DNA sequence: AATATATGCAAAG
DNA sequence: TTTGCCTATATTT
């Protein structure tokens, strides 16, 4: 269920935790055995997200060595703030050419159910960490650390569980020394194993090894990605022009990865509400100023999502709904930041059908459109 | 134990 | 427009 923000977050995590390393690549489940054999022993030199697509570049081990290539606008593997340094890391300069003829790319797409699970050696990454489905992350538990009375905000602390005290939390050993990765859990399609970290991929819609040319063909079909805005220039104008000449509804255009990459069902519904745009209005009948506002808002919302790991679109003054009885539930993947918001106050319309609109009080509507649930307020969105 | 659900997408009809 | 697929988890029987 990840939207683009999740995939960018994954890219950063893979870059930081495995970038620059020679990896063992396997397919414990077996369904990716051939592809894994192609990548096994190669070096992870770049990790890139575009919309919901995740690309990992694997260079031959004899290729020029260096840190993972810097994707424009993203941090490279040297940004390891808050994590322990890894001994023996190769520091030689000169990233390999990601388009080089001997490069192989791993293309993955999480689809509805996919997830990456990360497990690290003590002192390298002290928590098991998964992104994507399932909602409850494997080996992780969230606890509310602070929930001030009268405040809708709470701090959430993410702790590892289920992995045993020998593996996690003991700072006694040197980082990664003597570390063995845990046995694969569930249907692990692909496993990327570094010296101190393992990344397991389950349930992807796509997991394949492709050439640079094939990778280029995939990205050429994708529209501009709000999280990557600024790399190419004119992304906003591209989106506005493309949407503005279409007879397809703006609600469908926002879900079309060739029109705008990375938007999913939640960002679609929420951005349309925030812009006051009727999802059923044809793109060519949406004023360009509204289309531009949609794009600009998605840049902010999705970058926030990539930073915090959670989709929260409500403004603080609109999070005044009644607290549900029982224990506080917060949006997952919050990284323990104060940005945590009760799950039922994170959205304006998504999954709020039948409930009163936060702005006008009229009931939020639900309609199935192109196989997906569309939520909107017919009063606020024109 | 069976069923419902999910932030997706492409192929088939 | 409908179907099929990939998987783990919460809910219901």
Automatic annotation (TrEMBL):
Its cofactor is Zn(2+). Its EC number is 4.2.99.18. Gene3D superfamilies: 1.10.8.50, MutM-like, N-terminal. Residues 348-382 form the FPG-type domain. Residues 2-139 form the Formamidopyrimidine-DNA glycosylase catalytic domain. The keyword DNA-binding applies. It is an enzyme of class 4 (lyase). The keyword Zinc-finger applies. Keywords: DNA damage, DNA repair, DNA-binding, Endonuclease, Glycosidase, Hydrolase, Lyase, Metal-binding, Multifunctional enzyme, Nuclease, Zinc, Zinc-finger. Belongs to the FPG family. PANTHER family: ENDONUCLEASE 8, ENDONUCLEASE 8 1. This is DNA-(apurinic or apyrimidinic site) lyase. It comes from Myceligenerans xiligouense.
């Amino acid at each position: 269920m990840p939207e683009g923000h999740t995939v960018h977050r994954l890219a950063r995590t893979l870059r930081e935790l495995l970038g620059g390393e020679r990896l063992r690549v396997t397919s414990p489940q077996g369904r990716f055995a051939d592809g894994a054999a192609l990548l096994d022993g190669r070096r992870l030199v770049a990790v890139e997200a575009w919309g919901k697509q995740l690309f990992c570049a694997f260079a031959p081990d004899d290729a020029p060595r260096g840190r993972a290539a810097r994707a424009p606008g993203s941090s490279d593997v040297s940004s390891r703030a808050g994590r322990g340094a890894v001994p023996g890391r190769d520091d030689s300069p000169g990233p390999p050419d990601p388009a080089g003829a001997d490069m192989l790319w791993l293309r993955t797409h999480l689809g509805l159910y996919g997830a990456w699970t990360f497990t690290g050696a003590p002192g390298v990454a002290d928590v098991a960490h998964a992104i994507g489905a399932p909602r409850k992350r494997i080996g992780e538990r969230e606890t509310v650390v602070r929930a001030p009375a009268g405040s809708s905000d709470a701090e959430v602390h993410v702790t590892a569980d289920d992995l045993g005290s020998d593996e996690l939390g003991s700072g006694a050993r040197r980082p990664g020394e003597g570390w063995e990765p845990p046995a694969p859990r569930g249907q692990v399609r692909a496993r990327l194993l570094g010296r101190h970290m393992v990344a397991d991929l389950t349930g992807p819609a796509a997991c394949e090894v492709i050439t640079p040319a094939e990778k280029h063909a995939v990205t050429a079909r994708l529209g501009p990605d709000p999280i990557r805005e600024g790399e190419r220039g004119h992304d906003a104008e591209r989106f506005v022009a493309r949407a503005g000449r279409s007879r397809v509804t703006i609600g469908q255009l926002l879900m079309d990865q060739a029109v705008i990459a990375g938007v999913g069902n939640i960002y679609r519904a929420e951005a349309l509400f925030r812009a006051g745009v009727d999802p059923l209005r044809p793109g060519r009948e949406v004023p360009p100023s509204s289309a531009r506002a949609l794009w600009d808002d998605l840049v902010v919302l999705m970058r926030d999502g990539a930073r915090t790991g959670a989709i929260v679109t409500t403004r603080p003054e609109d999070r005044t709904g009644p607290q549900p009885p029982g224990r506080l539930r917060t949006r997952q993947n919050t990284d323990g930041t104060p940005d945590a918001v009760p799950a039922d106050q994170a959205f304006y319309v998504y999954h709020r059908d039948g409930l009163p609109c936060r702005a006008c009080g009229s009931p939020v509507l639900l309609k199935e459109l192109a196989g997906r649930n569309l939520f909107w307020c017919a009063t606020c969105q024109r």
